[in-house]
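User: I've been trying to design a sequence by hand for this structure and keep getting stuck. Would you show me what you'd pick, starting by listing the structure so we're on the same page?

Assistant: Good idea, let's start from the same input. This is the structure you sent:
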């Protein structure tokens, strides 16, 4: 007899790259630059004063702070130790054995593991390098539908207006599926789908501090949804799931949020210049902080000291957008030359 669930025995682990990393990190969709020095100092001062022997005390207070900032209704926001952990909670709370969960294919490689460890069955919805809506209509009978906008690893994105028919159709079912919209990369996209949450009680949105807020080390995510549903999810969350240090990091990241914005605002232009500058590689249209490039550029980029995410089973790789200097390196390794950014209009 196996000590663990036999249905999970063939489940591959999440493919974490080897540590310690060598080479330029363009494989994890992290922010290209660390926190500004003043923000680091502010957080270090907080950590110095933190009582290490006490359970964290600020989760409710900081949930409120973030809720007001994003304009969510009272009790409409749940903090979690990463958006991945919140997605796991949604699966735990919603799935019974054998329930189907629709996920994009290609999609975030963590999803199948989260579905299966919660007893669900994956229904892969083919998306190619775009985000066609049509195939999702065949998934309305699923218990949960996980959408990713922008999608990972392609960067594909559709607007709130374009998504509307699917949300409408899901909500109109006699037993609506729970729709989860993962917006890990939303800050790099032309718009957010946030307002849809106010209209569809069967929709939740997932966000993370790991990308645009340059805080991947601190493992902070949040979920937005109908307050009644959020309360039920909160009741199933492990207590004190964010560390006191992570809560302080969240607070300081919000204090300095305006300082992270220039990098986020500069990114789409750099992304579009790079995708147009590669003579031998095709970049899928991306609304995220990475590009899906084919044919697979990883042999050339790795030979030039850059780590990127190879996409198994395809002739493509995902390359995170780094700083201007990093992207000059990418362009040159791939035989292109990156034009200088257009001068910013003066205000
Ligand atoms: N969703 C998507 C689509 C992602 O690509 C990632 C990170 N790679 C996450 C969620 C996870 O973010 P977090 O760091 O909050 O777990």
């Amino acid at each position: 007899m196996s000590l663990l669930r036999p249905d999970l025995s063939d489940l591959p682990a999440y493919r974490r790259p080897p540590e310690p990393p060598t080479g330029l990190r363009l494989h994890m969709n992290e922010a290209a630059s660390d926190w500004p020095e003043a923000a680091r100092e502010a957080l270090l001062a907080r950590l110095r004063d933190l009582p290490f022997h006490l359970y964290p005390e600020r989760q409710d207070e900081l949930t409120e702070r973030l809720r007001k900032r994003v304009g969510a209704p009272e009790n409409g926001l749940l903090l979690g130790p990463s958006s991945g952990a919140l997605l796991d909670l949604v699966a735990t709370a919603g799935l019974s054995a054998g329930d189907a969960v629709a996920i994009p294919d290609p999609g975030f490689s963590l999803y199948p593991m989260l579905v299966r460890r919660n007893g669900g069955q994956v229904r892969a919805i083919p998306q190619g390098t775009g985000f066609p809506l049509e195939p999702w209509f065949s998934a309305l009978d699923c218990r949960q539908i996980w959408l990713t906008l922008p999608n990972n690893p392609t960067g594909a994105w559709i607007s709130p207006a374009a998504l509307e028919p699917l949300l409408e159709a899901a909500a109109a079912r006699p037993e609506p599926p729970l729709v989860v919209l993962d917006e890990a990369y939303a800050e790099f996209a032309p718009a957010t789908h946030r307002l849809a949450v106010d209209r569809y009680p069967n929709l939740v949105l997932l966000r993370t501090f790991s990308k645009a807020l340059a805080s991947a080390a601190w493992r902070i995510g949040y979920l937005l949804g109908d307050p009644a549903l959020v309360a039920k999810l909160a009741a199933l969350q492990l207590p004190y799931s964010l560390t006191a240090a992570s809560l302080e990091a969240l607070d300081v990241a919000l204090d300095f949020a305006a300082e992270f914005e220039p990098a986020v605002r500069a990114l789409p232009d750099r992304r579009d210049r790079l995708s147009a500058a590669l003579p031998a590689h095709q970049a899928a249209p991306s609304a995220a902080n990475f590009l899906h490039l084919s044919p697979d550029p990883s042999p050339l980029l790795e030979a030039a000291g850059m780590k990127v995410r190879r996409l198994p089973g395809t002739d493509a790789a995902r390359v995170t957008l780094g700083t201007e200097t990093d992207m000059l390196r990418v362009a040159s390794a791939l035989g292109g030359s990156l034009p200088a950014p257009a001068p910013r209009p003066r205000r």
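That's my pick for every position. To get oriented when you compare it with your attempt: Residues 257-276 form the longest helix (20 residues). The domain at 55-255 is CATH 3.40.640.10 (Aspartate Aminotransferase; domain 2).
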